[in-house]
Amino acid sequence: MAFALLDQIRSIFDGEPGVRKVADDPVLSAELLMLFRMILADGSVSESEMVAFRRICKDAFGIAETSIDSVIEYLNEFGYETNGSQAIALFRDLDLERRKQLARHMAEIAKADSQLAESEVRLLRRTLDLLDISPVDVVKPEE
């Protein structure tokens, strides 16, 4: 209990830990922006897509559930400064597995609402092309 209170007080003075993590890592910021663009690609935000986004934030990036709303707010406030091409450019020099991870996360969000819209397919296809990734790599399980 006392540690939780201290963490809350520290986060007031130091800022939200999840937001700090995202703000300090341009590649992570770019990936989260691309995932958010996938959520918005079909013109609506479904609860299942947000659940998938939150799960990816927590499981893949270690962002605490309590920080995710603040991270989303941060992305909304500062994400407009980065377009999709700029975000993808940060990934081009990364290793193949990291690029595949982005594509898998985008596909997971696209499929979350059980409806693949043409706009989601186009965004994923364009991302795969820019990252030089085969669609087969997205559907293959991680080794």
Automatic annotation (TrEMBL):
Protein name: TerB family tellurite resistance protein
Lineage: Bacteria, Pseudomonadati, Pseudomonadota, Alphaproteobacteria, Hyphomicrobiales
InterPro entries for this protein: DjlA_N (IPR007791), TerB-like (IPR029024)
Residue span(s) of domain Co-chaperone DjlA N-terminal: 33-138
Pfam families: TerB
Signal sequence bounds: none
